[in-house]
Amino acid sequence: xxxxxxxxxxxxxxxxxxxxxxxxxxxxxxxxxxxxxxxxxxxxxxxxxxxxxxxxxxxxxxxxxxxxxxxxxxxxxxxxxxxxxxxxxxxxxxxxxxxxxxxxxxxxxxxxxxxxxxxxxxxxxxxxxxxxxxxxxxxxxxxxxxxxxxxxxxxxxxxxxxxxxxxxxxxxxxxxxxxxxxxxxxxxxxxxxxxxxxxxxxxxxxxxxxxxxxxxxxxxxxxxxxxxxxxxxxxxxxxxxxxxxxxxxxxxxxxxxxxxxxxxxxxxxxxxxxxxxxxxxxxxxxxxxxxxxxxxxxxxxxxxxxxxxxxxxxxxxxxxxxxxxxxxxxxxxxxxxxxxxxxxxxxxxxxxxxxxxxxxxxxxxxxxxxxxxxxxxxxxx
Length: 381
Prior knowledge:
Layout: E1 5-11, H1 18-31, E2 36-42, H2 49-59, E3 64-68, H3 75-85, E4 90-93, H4 105-114, E5 119-123, H5 131-148, E6 160-163, H6 164-169, H7 180-186, E7 191-195, H8 213-229, H9 234-261, H10 270-297
Parallel strand pairs: 1-2, 1-4, 2-3, 5-7
Antiparallel strand pairs: 4-6, 5-6
Helix pairs in contact: 5-8, 9-10
């Protein structure tokens, strides 16, 4: 079975760059030997990009889909909207500014298949950008590697390929699109990179010129580090800090107590206030960590503390009867619905992971029957 590819392109005021980017993207997708689709997400453009995207979709309705957001929500939200619409087994994300080269898409796809990767980042080994932007990016990448332990050269690249499973697992909000590889690695997905060409911007203007961009990114990075290391064990962080502060405060108070017993006055010493504050804050931090552990323990069971890559189990199959529903791994009867992993009967609906019958609808993770009209663009259609 051939694997399908969806390209997701967030757009914000790129009317000048769109013609070139679209032409190269269409050519790159048409050259692939698998079904493809191209999804543009207009993130509140005001320069005519919305109208330009509508024309591009009308020219290739078999390939192009356009989603227009009500206002500018940010790149993470735009990508999330595109991911929700994407139907491919692989989802490629790239920017609309023309600096990412659409012709490099086969390189990402080949790396994912040859090295069995779930996430492939396009490493801009020779980045054609302003010197200040390159140095800022190097500092960011160095800091991210040091704090997360994920060994990549280019975390912030907008050119990435993700398997369908990754897209389904990772919610995007804020500016977390920058940390997709870190979040994916934390969930156990295989993350890698391959070098891709990069070129200077020739049309439009950069959307990231704010002096606050780097400090805000560092704050987001600290949030990601907390989520990946301590979200399931908040007591390790808050309890550790609280215990250390309380211990230091206790040592200070013990020292002052010894001085008091020796007949020295301690009431006007700033060290006394510091010792009391350290003990109080330490106890509060420890309490926060303890309450966090309690909340984590009482969360609904649906929020699993693990992720399965695969499950190889043929035991317990229960084929369905002539008109019955399929078992956990079995096929249904002629008029029955398929089980969680089994195909349906000739008129039944497919289970969550099984194909449908000839006139049925597919499950959430499976292809539909022959009458299902929703599918990516086939080459040559």
